[in-house]
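ENTRY TYPE: protein
WANTED: fold as tokens:
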Amino acid sequence: MADFQFGMNDYSVGVQAQQAVTFTPGWDVHRLALTFEVTARGNYTVDAPFLASGDLWVHDMPNPASYIGALHAPKGPVGLKPFKMQLVLETTVTDRQLRGLEKLRAGADRVLRAQLSLTALTETKHWPVAQDQEIIRIPHATWSSALTQLDAGAFVDVLIPITTVEARATGARRIREAKTAIRDGRYEHAVALARAALDPVREACDTHKVNTEALKKKPAERDQEERWAVFIQSAFNLFSGAPHDDAGTTENFTWTRADAVAAVTAAAGLLARLEELP
């Protein structure tokens, strides 16, 4: 919690970030609202006003490009209360900033840093301005859900049960490892892990056998099981290009972040699908 001590006064204000985040869409520029919890402590006068402002940064990107924008309180001064109260601070973000933030986040939680300033408007002695910073960790699902308010994108969270079936539990762990690899920029390794995660899927669906029979038919004549088998085997064959360097073919494969995300998402969905199969 950020703690602000005002000059020689015998009171302070604690500010703690909540997980609430709201986007309001605009024309290429959008409003981002963050909610903080404010607690006054010590000897203060109820309703004594202060102004809140600050700057917002990306916490896990320590360079000048990490700056997002200035924070301000849209409703003006806030009065001190003998109970916890909410404070909303806003800034603006552009479409370009959002794209950069999402690429940097890579499916992880969004961690921001607010450099806050509180200015006491009454009962001040000496310097009335206090400053501190608050680290704001916004869970992946909360941030992604807020982004959908802008129609700037969509997200799908896939829960893969960790079952007692050893092969499937191993597949789920491979997906977790692959997500970490994407965040670290190791895209080829992430695709290789997605391929490994498909092993229990291929076994449970008898993919090799069903796919072999399906390929003897015209695509329009294949039943649903056969079409799933073709899809699974095709994904496996594509992802196999990551761990293998076959001369003249897979040795020339390159893997982008978008490729890795698509591969891991597909493997995760196929693993989760096993739970509903007979």
Remarks:
- The radius of gyration is 26 Å.
- The chain has a mean pLDDT of 84.
